[in-house]
Specification:
- This protein has 207 residues and is mainly α.
- Helices cover 71% and strands 3% of the residues.
- The chain contains eleven helices and two strands; from the N terminus they run H-E-H-H-H-H-E-H-H-H-H-H-H.
- The chain has a two-stranded antiparallel ribbon with strand order 1-2.
- It starts with a helix and ends with a helix.
Length: 207
C-alpha cells in the first residue's frame, strides 16, 4: 500500500472527482488494511489543531461501530449502506488534506512494521478497539474540549494499526489515556462544577 499522504493527494487532487465524496469512495483506497485506514480518515478532520466543525458526532458514531467490530475480532469492517452513501463536499476534503498532510508525513517517516502482534493479535485488537470505542464516545459528547484530543488518539492508533506498527499503536493508546482523563475531568466539571484538569493545566502554564 502506498503512503497514505501520496494516496490522498493522488486521489483528491490529481484525478478528476465529482463535487461530493462518499465514504464508499474512500473505502476503495483502503486495500487490505482497511480498519486502520478508515480510523485515520474518519478521525482526521477532528484531530487537526484547527478541526473541521460538524464531523465529530457522525464520524464518532462510525468509529464506534468500527471499534466494536475490532473487539469482536472481525477482519473486515461492515458499515450500513446509508453510511456508505454519506458524502461531504470535495472542497472540504481537500482543505482537510492540505492542513493535515504535513502532520501525516511526519508520522509516515517514523512508521514501519514492528511489534506487529499488537496490531494483528486478538488481544491487542480488543485493547485497541476498547480504547477507540471510548474515544469515539468522547467525540460524540457536544462539550468543548472532549473532541480534538480523543480524535488525535484514534488517529495515531489507527495509523499504527494500518502500518502494523505496534510502537505507534502504543503511543496512540497513551494519547487515548491522556485524552480520556482530560475529557472525564471536563465532563465532571460541566455537570458538578469546579475546574477541569484542562483548566488547571492552563492555570499552571499561565502562572
Amino acid at each position: 500500500m502506498a503512503k497514505l499522504s501520496l494516496e490522498l493527494n493522488r486521489y483528491f487532487f490529481e484525478e478528476e472527482r465529482s463535487s461530493d465524496v462518499t465514504l464508499a469512495e474512500i473505502l476503495n483506497l483502503a486495500g487490505e488494511r482497511i480498519f486502520g485506514f478508515l480510523l485515520v480518515i474518519l478521525s482526521f478532520p477532528s484531530a487537526l489543531p484547527i478541526p473541521a466543525p460538524g464531523y465529530s458526532i457522525p464520524f464518532g458514531i462510525l468509529m464506534f461501530i468500527l471499534a466494536l467490530q475490532l473487539i469482536c475480532g472481525r477482519q473486515r469492517p461492515w458499515l450500513p449502506a446509508k453510511m456508505m452513501k454519506a458524502s461531504m463536499k470535495l472542497e472540504t476534503v481537500q482543505g482537510v488534506i492540505k492542513a493535515g498532510n504535513p502532520w501525516l508525513q511526519k508520522i509516515e517517516a517514523l512508521s514501519k512494521p514492528r511489534l506487529s502482534y499488537i496490531c494483528t493479535g486478538l488481544t491487542g485488537r480488543i485493547i485497541l478497539g476498547i480504547a477507540i470505542a471510548l474515544m469515539s464516545i468522547s467525540m460524540m459528547i457536544p462539550i468543548p474540549g472532549t473532541n480534538t484530543l480523543p480524535a488525535m488518539g484514534i488517529w495515531v492508533t489507527g495509523f499504527g494499526l494500518m502500518e502494523d506498527d505496534g510502537v505507534i499503536c502504543l503511543a496512540g493508546l497513551l494519547l487515548c489515556a491522556v485524552a480520556g482523563t482530560l475529557s472525564t475531568s471536563i465532563i465532571i466539571a460541566v455537570i458538578w462544577g469546579g475546574s477541569s484538569l484542562l483548566d488547571v493545566i492552563k492555570g499552571w502554564l499561565g502562572s
